[in-house]
Amino acid sequence: MIDMFAGAGGNVIAFALSDRWSKIIAIEKDPSVIACAQHNAFIYGVFERITWINDDCFSYLASNSLSIDPSKTVVFASPPWGGPGY
């Protein structure tokens, strides 16, 4: 399971709590936001069950495309939305 836009961690924490996936990768390009996600995951007791990637999700996926098996990987994408002027 790959969360392409981990943000503050709400979705990736829920994925980890579900015990559905053996490997969870959270990608977030903003260092301060991924720090919040990691803190939140620690509070929920799932920090160690998530692989944290501080990078642009498209760059990460492109550079790791050969190691990602699309038949065994769920890619979740909930991009940030800042409104019409974003």
Sequence of secondary-structure elements: EHEHEHE
Major sheet summary line:
4 strands, parallel
User: What share of residues are in beta strands?
Assistant: 5-15%
What is the helix fraction of residues, given as a range?
25-40%
Summing up helix and strand content along with how strands pair, one would put the structural category as alpha/beta
Number of strands: 4
> Averaging pLDDT over every residue, what do you get?
93
What's the alpha carbon Rg, rounded to whole Å? 13 Å
The termini sit apart by 28 Å
**Low-pLDDT regions:** none
Strand order of the largest sheet: 3-2-1-4
Number of helices: 3
Question: What best-fitting shape do the alpha-carbon axes yield?
Answer: globular
Descriptive account of the structure:
Helices cover 34% and strands 14% of the residues. It contains 3 helices and 4 strands; from the N terminus they run E-H-E-H-E-H-E. Strands 3-2-1-4 form a 4-stranded parallel beta sheet, covered by helices on one side. Helix 1 (10-18) links the parallel strand 1 and strand 2. The chain is globular and about 30 Å long. The mean pLDDT is 93.
